């Protein structure tokens, strides 16, 4: 009978870890090439597609937008019906109060959704904080639109790209980025092996 006694020893930074070897180094160089070219955006990806793919995506997007517009219209109609019921209820009654509060909640939800949609298009990076700011600073006009130029002037930190945390993989190792190799050596010494 044939018996396999496989022993795998590797050094973390020698390219043999995790079953990688040459294939991993090729993958790493491919990944670093992507990073050096910048982040991949949907618009950049979309422009590189052929007309058939663009047509499929455009059709799918149009159908989603149509469904969204239909849903918004239904919600606005429902809000109107609730307000009509509230006006027909006895003045000052619990029913009138509850129906008015429900209609106000529905209106606020629609206002928030429309704000998020518009804010995303103009490059707001923190939608929830921007909405709270718009409500607090009364930046909505009578139609429910926000002056994003005014918001950007007052709160520029709400716009732009997301920031990456500072640091790198070697931090916390006192300058020694080969911690895994040191750990391997330490384990070998404890086991009584020198190589």
Mean pLDDT: 75
**Number of E-state strands:** 0
What would you call the structural class?
Answer: mainly alpha
Summarize the amount of helix as a percent range: 55-70%
Biggest β-sheet description: none
**Cα shape:** elongated
Low-confidence stretches: 14-36
Please work out how many helical segments DSSP would assign.
7
Order of helices and strands: HHHHHHH
Q: Per DSSP, what share of the residues sits in E-state strands of 2 or more residues? A: under 5%
The Rg value, from CA coordinates, equals 30 Å
How far the N terminus sits from the C terminus, by CA atoms, comes to: 31 Å
What's the gist of this structure?
By secondary structure, the protein is mostly helical. Helix content is about 60%, strand content about 0%.
Structure commentary:
The protein is mainly α and 195 residues long. Among the domains are: 42-109, no CATH class; 122-160, no CATH class. The protein is 61% helix and 0% strand. The protein starts with 21 loop residues before the first helix and ends with a helix.
Layout of secondary structure:
Blueprint: H1 22-37, H2 42-47, H3 51-88, H4 94-121, H5 127-136, H6 148-154, H7 179-191
Helix pairs in contact: 3-4, 4-5
List keywords for this structure.
195 residues; 7 helices; single chain
